[in-house]
Amino acid sequence: MYLRHHNNASTTLLGGWKPDASSYEQQAYLSKYNYYDMGNAYGSLNSRVPNAGQQVNTAWLDHKIKQGNDFVLSTNPYDTNLGKSYIEELKELKSNGYSIPKSPSSDGLWHLTKG
Fold first, then answer.
1. Rounded to 5, what percent of the chain is helix, strand, coil?
2. Per-residue pLDDT tens for 22-70?
3. pTM attached to this predicted model
4. Which residues fall within 8 angstroms of residue 97, CB to CB, at 6 or more apart?
């Protein structure tokens, strides 16, 4: 079962997963940003239907894009060691006209702009 938190928030936070308090879902939860977390279901789903987890994730992200959400990133998008899902999210945002700043804002997050 996947979890959508703060689903009515107008800002969505994306980032890489870490097994500690710096993980994207922890930051989003505390900031009351919208985020998506499939937890252990991601691997379970992919073992039954290859790439299904990514398809569900992309559909969710496309929905947030269509809603006109603002996006912030908690993980450096220019890092050389990014997870596959995060890389795909960044590609999806770029293909929908979002620009990623070269450095984070004073809050430590990368605030994307559209246009």
1. 35, 20, 45
2. 677 778 877 788 887 766 666 676 677 777 777 888 998 999 999 999 9
3. 0.82
4. 114, 115
